[in-house]
Amino acid sequence: MSPRPAALSRTAILSRPRTLASELVAALSDRIRRGRLAPGHKLPTEAAVMAEFGVSRTVVREAISRLQAAGLVDTRHGVGTFVAGPGDPAAQRAFRIGPEQLATLQDVVAVLELRIGVETEAAGLAAQRRTEDNLRAMRQALAEFGAAIEAGSDAVTADFALHHEIAKATQNSHFAELLGTLGARIIPRARLDPALALSPERLVYLKRVHGEHESIVDAIAARDPDAARAAMRTHLANSRERRRREALPLVPLVPPALAQALEEPPKQGARPARAKARVPERALAPAPERVSRAPGRGKAPVPRRRA
Prior knowledge:
The protein is mainly α. Helix content is about 55%, strand content about 5%. A hairpin with a 3-residue loop joins strand 1 (about 75) and strand 2 (about 80-85).
């Protein structure tokens, strides 16, 4: 058994808290490329990685998910995570959605449609099969999401962790492996710069997302599969519709020529031109004299005298 890898300096990792998962991925990837973690070698346990790098369990799981998406490791449920070799079938068959496939809002909408199909059913199965340990893990991710919002973070890591825990609660390893392979980049907010401060509008949006997450977990806790499916579908559909609106082209309400004329300041000393009202020709013609018709047939109309 190969010796345990030397610890990475925590200073480099803790210098930017919002990129902990990226730093951990870079560190483990470097060890794999340099051969310090050889093909077939079992990665240290989550607890060991947490202790070595000084990060949370959520960060470790996200990092492992990214390594899976890159085809660098293969997770065997109930056994552990192993380094995949260059010719390893796991690396060749890995389904992935790379950054280049999330370049536009239309791409993000397409991934959300995939997630609606997969995660709606996963939520229903989780409500039927979840264990108390599954429920505790979900509530922990939910609490981390709320804490991240209060700290001014976009909570991408905690968001993905919750969805991944729901997939695990299905007790069907394929759901968890698929989400783990896709990684945290499937969270639409992962495309944004995490260093940007949250605007008041985004903070309101994240609190609404937090409420949707609570509805999903509550339905799973109550073992209500129909309510869990409905809550998950609503949550992901809301996210999809938000991105669809963002992708719509902006149509000007005022014609460009008129908008330009309105923006141009009037020349100094010039009196604003008054547009002459165009009067229809019919309005200039004299009004016909009103007549009244006497009773009886064949008699000429008698003009009505004006008072």
